[in-house]
Amino acid sequence: MKAIIQTDLSNPRSLEWSDAPDPTLEEGQVLVSVRAVGLNRADLLQAAGHYPPPPGTTDILGLECAGVIEEVKGDVLGWKVGDEVCCLLSGGGFAEKVAVPAGQVLPLPEGYSFEEAASIVEVACTVFSNVVMVAGLTEGQTFLVHGGAGGIGTFAIQMAKQLGATVAVTAGSQEKLDKCAELGADILINYKEENFEEVLASRGGANVILDIMGAKYLDRNVKALAKDGHLVIIGMQGGVKGELNIGRLLSKRGSITATGLRYRDLADKARIVAATEDTVWPMLADGVITPQIHTVMDIRETASAHEILANGEVSGKVVLTV
């Protein structure tokens, strides 16, 4: 098969469409012929050598895809050859074929194209598992998401509004804030001009914060929390080591969770995927949450796609077609 291969590990843009071994299908897996794949910042981090795949996982990039099942191995309930599906992956999506544990396979959301489905799996599972399953966001609470115009942010705004939350966002331009407002965000904060922690504190704080920045925002996020608030850290764009004022956290009776999907075990991922399908897929079918795609490119343009995402001018997701 063909796949995106990084030809120089010291150069994160040395990504070429080249020959690669076909995946080896194991019991309980399906082989998917990939039609489209979503690009995530985790792919950029892996190419830069900062986010290695879990042990035993292919080095090929790609954490979500959509395509058609062409083989099933073992006792796999609910799936058959020819089914159109989308998948949560630990890696391997940037290829013509990928082997996927059956518990990480979902049907295409009703009415969705392969490109739209490939843009939604990672963000849907990430946001739902962290905002609802971990932090328990409920109606009437205030929710802050950093990077509101990105892939995670554009999905999180829509889902939080469906839960009845007041949504605050940070973004670095008026254009991006306008995009967030179109999706339902209530509190728009230009992080280049305002201190988000002061804005939130003036409104009683955020009950739930979804953070992609990590160390850089740690203390500021704690300042922005409401009493009994919950900070969920899912990214490290702002570094990995920060200083925590425990006294401030105690005064808020706050909690901090740092979590991710990629390194969870198969049973845990299957649990999250099933819960996401049950709760979020009907929202997608009803159109109350819509896919936000910045651009669609050919997979042979992966290096350029990485550059576009790295430049920070993307609103929504970049999708690659195979």
Protein model, in words:
It is built from ten helices and 15 strands. It is of the alpha/beta class and 322 residues long. The strands form three sheets. Strands 3, 4, 5, 6, 7, 14 and 15 form a seven-stranded mixed sheet that branches. A six-stranded parallel sheet has the order 10-9-8-11-12-13. α3 crosses α4 (151-162) and α3 (121-134) crosses α9 (266-286). It is globular and about 55 Å long.
Task: Tag the structure with descriptive keywords.
single chain; 322 residues; alpha/beta; seven-stranded mixed sheet; six-stranded parallel sheet; 10 helices; 15 strands; 30% helix
Instruction: Classify the secondary structure makeup into a structural class.
Output: alpha/beta
- Care to count the β-strands? 15
Based on CA atoms alone, the radius of gyration comes out at 19 Å
Rounded mean pLDDT is 97
Low-confidence stretches: none
Largest sheet: 7 strands, mixed
Order of helices and strands: EEEHEEEEHHEHEHEHEHEHEHEHE
**What is the strand content?**
25-35%
Helical percentage = 25-40%
Mass-distribution shape: globular
Q: What is the end-to-end distance? A: 12 Å
Number of helices: 10
